[in-house]
Amino acid sequence: MDSSEIIVTLTGLALSAFVIWYFFFSTRQTASAVSTSSGVQEVDITVKGGYSPDVIEVERGKPVQLSFYRDEENSCSEELLMPDFSIRRDLPAFKTTLVELLPQQAGTFTFTCGMGMLRGSLVVK
Amino acid sequence: MEPTTKTETLDIEGMTCASCASFVEKSLTRTPGVQRAMVNFATEKATIDYLPTQATPATLKEAVIKAGYGVTERTPDTSAADRQAEIDQQKALAYTKLKRRFWVATVLAIVIMPLSMLMLWPAMMARVNMQWLNYGLLVLTLPVLLYSGREFYTSAWNGFKHRAANMDTLIAVGTGAAFLYSLAATVVPGWFMRQGIMPEVYYDTTATIIALILLGKVLELRAKTQTSAAIKALMGLQAKTARVVRPDGQEVDVPIEQVQLNDLIVVRPGEKVATDGVIEEGHSAVDEAMLTGESLPVEKKTGDPVFGATLNKTGSFRFRVTKVGVDTMLSQIVKLVEDAQGSRAPIQRLADKVSAIFVPTVVVIAILTFVLWFDLAPVEARLPLALVNFVAVLIIACPCALGLATPTAIMVSTGKGAEHGVLIRNAEALEKAHQVNTVLLDKTGTITRGEPAVTDFVPAEGQDAAQLLQVVAAVERQSEHPLAEAVVRYADAQAATAIAATGFQAIEGKGAQASVNGQAVLIGNFRLLDEAGISLSPLVRRQADELLGQAKTVLYIAVGGKAAGVIGVADTVRETSAVAIKRLQSMGLEVVMMTGDNPQTAAQVAGQVGIKRYFAEVLPADKAGKVKELQAEGRIVAMVGDGINDAPALAQADIGLAMGGGTDVAMEAAGITLMRSDLQGVVTAIELSRQTIRTIKQNLFFAFIYNTLGIPIAAGLLYPFFGILLSPMLAAGAMALSSVSVLTNSLRLRSFSPAKN
Predict the structure, then answer these.
(1) TM spans, by residue (chain A) (predicted)?
(2) Which of B117, B118, B130, B137 is nearest to B182 (CA)?
(3) Contact (CB, 8 A) for A103 and A58
């Protein structure tokens, strides 16, 4: 092995380790829902290459209103799926789309883009 | 008792500042019956709590108009339609933009390709300055990268910030690496020379990959819009206006949003029925195919329900509105189909798990590919080889095919089901239906019509059939008994002349009596005649016994104190039942019947439709138990029923099918709702589910096999054995085609049509 091979190998391994850590093990943005006077739990979510926040905590048995603002034209994020609640919604670009649901059971429910690449989760307590 | 308040939301027009809002608020608050009014200037909405006894949406609107502002009234339905229209418009715009980006990339790639090949001809090598040529290629490639491919880079960057990686990440990293290497080779070729490497450029690879991927996206978007065509078609069925009869008798055309409960609406021949209601006068044939899949028009008369979006054929009628907006049958169907399209099929679980880790995993594989090629290839070629294979791995991997495999098939098939009057509640129901091996039919209302009908009309010796029928019908027209209704229906079908009966009297548990043409007429069971001391002639007795032997209900007729004949009544089997059951059996399903009837009647009906196994004398409470019994035999059971007392059995079954005209309770408990009262729907549902699952399996197989073969080949796995390397451009073509082929396969479901026999 010459020196450049050693450098490439070490860099490659380090990069691989970084990719695995960054995408699978680093901490995520969490937000708890804000309850309004009428008892609706509201959360604003920005959609731009992903969901921020992408972990949303809500309480069981109270209605939830998620406001998705899609801040991009990229077609990847144009659809929103929440299969546990039978929700499939188109999110128009640069507009807010309201999604209402009533979580009855505690647990973690994933929401994704139309192809399951962009992911977020609704944690019901 | 506390009077109930109602809440109304109005969209206010013409407010320019916050004081306008308080102005409108005041005007509303002063309106009699209004308990609270809130006007939000930002959203331009007024929310009003009012007492429906004192105020109506119309008076509220007047109050706003009086204050000098306008109201755009919106029902949830129209706003949904508006939203959909807006989304469609956006999608059309995005499609146009995408096409433009595709054409720019394609035209430039077509120019870049041959110029890149120049260097392959030794004759050209001497004439062309390579450095200048590379700069020329760079200038041509920049628009492809910055205009056509820009979305990939911004999306990848946005995703990276969110720790999310998608297809764009792969394309951006792949083409970005190829471009940056080429840029370095163009700007500082000397450095490469000193390393003993030819400063080759890959502008053609960069441009062609972007053009091909965009081609894939164009095709994908085109196919995707077709997957949701069914639901759009359903939404488009909604009538736009209705002809309302005002209290003063005036007929006015109003927009559908303004139609209210209890309005009286006129429908003329060839017009659409505006919303759901009940006919008050007139009769007609109505085409309900768009809701039920029933191709023949349905006869409608006073008291019959009509549904919005259906088409009036011949007559004209007036109906009273019973449902508007989101409560109508059409809206319910649209909602059900929408919900089903948003649900997840269990079969998708593995694909979902893979999708979640797919992109980062591919990036790691690509990095390792680069490292291995760099370490193992000959020194002079190691960098270009490592780079080319790194790019090929990133570009060939296609997460889309995995992500699209299941949902697209579910979307097409739920839409297709609705077209045939089969409403699928969710993807799980669709998946369950294909595993079914036993179909349990609740006899009444599924195999049979669920209402008694005259099967035999037998006059005694010396009686004229037509005359006797007139007499019988005259009496039965005044009765409210279901059996009497059956006799009247039969008489109407035979076009019996209506004559009058007087002194009608119903005799509880036995029948009825009246006088017709001055003669006493008795119609009822054997006891009625027996207690009146009327005896049967041997012939009449024999005929009655024969009917009883066929498990039919027998009505005895006496005119003027003498037995005049018998009528056989039975819950008749639908014409389509035997054919549909035969079809289910030929699909390899065992069909089992259950009924509350005695074993004799059960055997009779089962024999008539070719069912070998049946449960007789089943009490309503035991229906779910029968489902369990079959499940205990290791069967996967589909239960078909139509009544309230079927709900527990429908819920207990692996898959419940509630039959049309069925109660809401039954529909709630069922995974599949059949809009038509016809067993053909069961055949359609099971065939559709089998075909859908087959399509999904093909899609998933293709998506998995494509990636598991494609990625190692792109990484150069075949090179040590066969010397094969995959060009990144070929990889781009393969990837573009892979997601399109999955979509195309799902779209094949659009040609689904149920076998009729």
Answers:
(1) 6-25
(2) B137
(3) yes
Amino acid at A84: D
pTM for the predicted model, two decimal places: 0.76
- B341 and chain A: CB distance < 8 Å anywhere? yes
Paired strand residues for A107:
A124
Q: Can you list the pairs that B233-237 forms with residues at least 24 positions away whose Cβ atoms lie under 8 Å?
A: B234/B290, B234/B330, B234/B333, B234/B334, B234/B337, B234/B418, B235/B80, B235/B81, B235/B84, B235/B334, B237/B272, B237/B290, B237/B309, B237/B330
CB contact at 8 A, B699 and B410: no
Partner A, chain B 519-578, Cβ-Cβ below 8 Å = none
What is the Cα Rg of chain B in Å?
36
Tokens linked to B43: 């959203």
Instruction: Catalogue the long-range contacts made by B154-157 (C-beta closer than 8 Å, 24 or more residues apart).
Output: B154/A49, B154/A72, B154/A74, B155/A49, B155/A72, B155/A74, B155/A76, B156/A49, B157/A49
* Phi, psi (rounded to 5 degrees) for A106: -75, 155
Query: Do the chains contact at B158 and A73, CB–CB below 8 Å?
Result: no
Compute the distance between CA of residue B130 and CA of residue B139 in angstroms, rounded to an integer. Answer: 14
pLDDT tier, A9 (very low <50, low <70, confident <90, very high otherwise): very high
Q: What is the pLDDT of residue B76?
A: 46
Beta-carbon contacts of B458 under 8 Å, excluding residues fewer than 6 positions away, are: B540, B543, B547, B565, B566, B567, B568
> Strand locations in A25-94, DSSP E?
30-32, 34-35, 41-47, 51-52, 55-58, 64-70, 79-82, 87-90
Q: What are the tens digits of pLDDT across the range B559-572?
A: 888 888 999 988 88
Which residues sit opposite B13 in a β-bridge? B70
- The residue ranges of DSSP E strands in B434-561, in sequence order, are 438-442, 448-459, 502-507, 511-516, 519-524, 553-559
Which three-class secondary structure string do you get for B171-201?
HHHHHHHHHHHHHHHHHCHHHHHHCCCCCCC
The answer to whether B73 touches B259, Cβ cutoff 8 Å, is no
For B113-158, the DSSP string reads HHHHHGGGSHHHHHHS-HHHHHHHHHHHHHHIIIIISHHHHHHHHH
A11-33 pLDDT, tens digit each = 999 999 998 988 888 776 677 77
CA–CA separation, B659 and B423 (whole Å): 10
User: Rounded distance, CA B663 to CA B518, Å?
Assistant: 45
Closest listed residue to residue B460, CA positions, set B561, B382, B381: B561
Instruction: Return d(Cα A106, Cα A104) in angstroms, integer.
Output: 7
Quick one: how far is CA B375 from the chain centroid?
A: 55
* Contact at CB, A92 and B86, closer than 8 angstroms: yes
User: Which residues does B247 contact at the CB level (< 8 Å), separation at least 6?
Assistant: none
Structure token digits, residue A39 = 């008892």
Among residues 364-423 of chain B, which lie with CB inside 8 Å of chain A?
Answer: 364, 367-368, 370-371, 374-375, 379, 386, 399-400, 402-404, 407
Distances (CA, A) of B65 to B16, B20, B35, B50, B304: 15, 13, 19, 18, 39
List CB contacts of B83: < 8 A, sequence separation 6 or more.
none
Q: Say if CB B699 and CB B460 are below 8 A apart.
A: no
Shortest CA distance to B313 belongs to which of B323, B330, B299, B303? B299
Q: Does B168 touch chain A (CB under 8 A)?
A: yes
Task: Give me the sheet containing B298-300, strands edge to edge.
Answer: B298-300, B284-287, B311-312
Computed over every residue of chain B, the mean pLDDT equals 84
pLDDT at B691: 93
For B413-430, how does the pLDDT look when each residue is reduced to its tens digit (9 = 90+)? 988 888 888 888 888 888
Which residues of chain B, if any, have pLDDT below 50?
1-2, 75-78, 757
Quick check: helix, strand or coil at residue B463? Answer: coil
**Contact in structure between B739 and B216 (CB atoms under 8 Å):** yes
Q: In this structure, are residues B66 and B27 in contact, taking their beta carbons and an 8 Å threshold?
A: yes
